[in-house]
Amino acid sequence: MSAYEELMAFDRQTQALRQIAGRLGWDQETVMPRAAAPQRAEESEAMEQVLHARRTDPRLGDWLAAIDEAALDQVGRANLRHIRRSFTRATRVPARLAGELARVTSEAQGQWAEARAADDFAGFAPVLARIVALKREEAAALAAGGDLYDALLDDYEPGATGAELQAMFDALRPRLVDLRARILGAAHQPAALTGSFDEQAQMKLTRRLAKAFGYDMAHGRIDKAVHPFSSGSGLDVRITTRTNPEDPFGAVYSTIHETGHACYEQHIDPAYLLTPLGAGVSMGVHESQSRIYENQLGRSRAFTGWLFGEFKGAFGDLALADAEAFYAAANRVHPGFIRTESDEVQYNLHVLLRFDLERQMIAGTLDVADLEEAWNSRFEADFGVKVERASQGCLQDVHWSVGLFGYFPTYSLGNVYAGCLHKALRADMPDLDTHLAAGDAAKPTEWLADRLQRHGGLYEPKEVITLACGEAPGEGPLLDYLEAKFSEIYRL
Which domains does the chain have, with CATH numbers? Predict the structure, then answer.
C-alpha cells in the first residue's frame, strides 16, 4: 500500500469509531436510563482517549510527510487538508485533558438537565466553571499564543475569527433592531395559534414533514430529547424533536430544522463515506441548511398554506380563520426568552448575546459565578423583558454544559449563508412556490443537494457557499429577505 492508502485505511477506522462515540451521545440524550450517567461518563472518556490516541498517532505524521500531494486529485488533497488539520490540533491537546473534557461534559449533560428543570443555576455553576476552566486550558494549547476564542471557534467554522464575526454581527444588529421596533409598534398584530394539540398527533405530523423535505427514514429515525439535535452521518443519521401541547409550532419547526441538518448528511456523495469528506464541512454551512429548511422554505406563505390543511387534519378546527392567518401566526414576532422558539427577526439577537458572553468567559473577563446576572441584564437591555427563571435564561441551552464554546456564532453565520442560498434558489427555481404549496419540499432539497450538500467536506466553508450561490456570502440577502417578508405581514 502507498502512504496515502495506509493513511486513509487508518483514518477510516477512526471515522467509524467517531460515529460510535456519537451514537453514545445520541443514546444518552434519548433513551439511556438516567441513573446510568456515571457509567456513561466513563465510557465516553474511554472512547475519547482511544480517539485521541488515534488522532495523535505518530504514524499520521510519517504518512503525511511521505505523501506527494501534487500527485493526488482534488479529493485526495481535500482528505489531506482535513487529516493534517486534525492531527495538528490533536497533538497540541494532552490526552489527559481530552479524556477529562469528555468525562466532565458527559456528566454535565445530566446535571444541566436537572438544574434546568429545577431553575437552579447556582447548583450548576461549579460544574460550568470546571468546564470553562478545561476549555480555556484546551484553547491555550490549541492557540499556541494566539487568540483563545479563535482557537475554539476553528473547531466549528475553520478559518473564521471572532473579530470577523463581530464585524458581521455589528452589520446585522442595527437593521434587525430597527425592524423589530417597527414590527412591535405596528398597528396590525397577527393572532397567535392557540389551543391544545395532542402530542402523539404532533409526532405523527413531524414524521410526515421530515419525509416531505426528503429525509430518508430507512437511514434515520425521529425521537424526543430535551434539546432537539441531529446526530450521525452517512447511512445512519438521526434527529430528535420535542413537543408541547400548547405549542405545536415548536415540534413542527424544530423537526424541519433538524431535518435540514440530516438531509445535508444523507446527501453527501456516498464515495466519501467514513472519510474526512463524509460530513458537513462546518457548523455555519450546516446551519445554513437547517435554517433555509425551517424558515425560507418551511415558514413561506406557499408551504404554510399546505401545512394549514395538515394541521386541520391532525388537530381539527383551528382558532385561525384561514391559511393567511396561519401563515402570519407561523411567522409571528413576539417577545420570548427561548432561542429555539424565537422568530426570524429576533433569533440572531439571541445568538449575539451568547456570542458576547462566551467570548468573555473564555477571555477570563466574565466569571461563571456572574454569568446569570450578566445574562439577565443583557437580555433585558436587548429584548426589553426581565428573565424570571434560569430555564428562561442561561440554562436554556445545552451547549456550554457539553463544552461547545465557539459554536453559537455559527447559528447566525448559518442564517447569513441561508439568505444567500435562498436568493440563488429563487433565481434558479421560479416555480418554487408551486412545489411548496403542494407540500413538495423535496424539490428545493434536490437543488441544495446538488449545489452544496453532496460536496461534504470537499471545499472550505466560504468556498462551497460561493460555489452554490455564484457570489461571495454577505449579510445583505438575509436582511433584505427579512425586511420584505415582515413588512408585508405587519403592513409596515
Answer: 3-153 (no CATH), 162-489 (1.10.1370.30)
